[in-house]
Amino acid sequence: MRLLYPTLYLPSIACLQPEQLQRWGVRGLILDVDNTLTTHDNPVPHPEVRHWLEVMRKAGISMIILSNNHPPRVKPFAELLGLPFTADAAKPLPKGFRRAARELNLPKEQIAVVGDQIFTDVLGGNLFGAKTVLLQPIQPESTWFFRLKRRLEKGILQKYKANNK
C-alpha cells in the first residue's frame, strides 16, 4: 500500500512551494499535464501555473513534463510553457521517469514527481524512488474509466490521510 501513498498531498500546484522542495533536497520536478497543469485535453495552462513556474524557476528548480499522452498533445503545451517533455511515458513504469531524470541531469533522490493520479504519477514516482506530490484534480473527468479510478483512489486517500494526521 505504501507505493500508492504520496510523500505529500496538496489541493493544487500553487500550494507546492520551493521551501518544501529545498527541505527535501529536491532540485527538479517531473510534472504531469492533464489535471495537474491544466484541465483534461486543454491546450491552455491553468491560470495559476505560469506564476508558479516562474517562482520555481527563480528558486532554481528544474522541471520537465512527463505524460502518457502522445507528442501532438504534449509538445505544443510544453513549448508554450518553455519546458522539455517526454511523451508516451507508459506511467507508472519506471522507464519514462528514468528518461526524465536523465534530461534533468539529476539523481532520483533530488527529484519529486507531481501529478493528480495515484495509479500513474504516485505509483510510478514511488517505484522510481523519487518523492511524490499528489494534487487534487483541477476538474473531475467524465469518462467511466476515470470515474472508476477516482473511486478507487478515494479509498486509498482516506487511508493515507488517517495515517498522516
Molecular structure report:
This protein is α/β, with parallel strands linked by helices and 165 residues long. The protein has one domain: HAD superfamily/HAD-like (Rossmann fold). The chain is 42% helix and 15% strand. The protein contains six helices and six strands, in the order βαβαβαβαβαβα. β2, α2 and β3 (62-66) form a beta-alpha-beta unit.
Which structural category do the helix and sheet elements fall into? alpha/beta
Order of neighbouring strands in the sheet with most strands: 1-6-5-2-3-4
Q: What does the main sheet amount to?
A: 6 strands, parallel
Give the distance, in angstroms, between the N- and C-terminal Cα atoms. Answer: 17 Å
Helical content stands at: 40-55%
Which shape, going by the Cα principal axes?
Answer: globular
Q: State the helix count.
A: 6
Query: CATH homologous superfamily?
Result: HAD superfamily/HAD-like
Q: Would you identify the CATH architecture? A: 3-Layer(aba) Sandwich
CATH topology: Rossmann fold
List the helices and strands and how they pair.
Layout: E1 8-10, H1 18-24, E2 28-31, H2 49-58, E3 62-66, H3 71-81, E4 85-86, H4 94-104, E5 111-115, H5 118-128, E6 131-135, H6 144-163
Parallel strand pairs: 1-6, 2-3, 2-5, 3-4, 5-6
